[in-house]
Amino acid sequence: MCLHALYLSGVGPIEECADQHCDAHRVMKAGAMRQILIVEDDESIHAGLRALFLEEGYTVMDAFSGKQALDLLRGINLPLVVLLDWRLPDMDGGRVFATAHTEMPSDHGQAFIFCTANSDTLPLATVRLMAEMHVPLVRKPFDIDELLEVVADAANSLVA
Questions:
Q1: Model-level pTM greater than 0.85?
Q2: Pair 21, 2: CB distance under 8 Å
Q3: Which tens digit of pLDDT belongs to each residue from 83-101?
Q4: What radius of gyration do the chain's Cα atoms show?
């Protein structure tokens, strides 16, 4: 089993995979799996989101900081929904988004969704960039139906 498959199964960190013909790659590249990266530092919220999206049939990847999220995004080139918390321990979600937008080519196929309990404190420049890039914002506490709909729309946009 390649390291990508180990990561996707929750066993280990993602690394560059030497086996581009493994089953996990064939399935992921065929688009048969919907992937979501949950970037949330609150362990209880993270665990709830993880359980929700696993139940909905998503392959879930986890990051608890901006650095972890960027390391994952740099190492994977698959269609991916990124559910990104605004307040993270090492950097805010706006910095993660801006860095990913600057460093990763558009063919990486990532759809970002911001989530925060403090939407009224987002910097105006971030709000403008979100509007320009069509990045939705989901407010905490989550309305589960709204969250699932926004994430499904983002995932569907990646395969369209």
A1: no
A2: no
A3: 999 999 999 998 999 898 8
A4: 15
Quick one: what percent of the chain has pLDDT higher than 90?
A: 52
Half-sphere exposure of 140 (CA within 13 A, CB side): 17
Label the pairing between strands 34-39 and 80-85. parallel
What tens digit of pLDDT does each residue of 34-82 get? 899 999 999 999 999 999 999 999 999 999 999 999 999 988 878 899 9
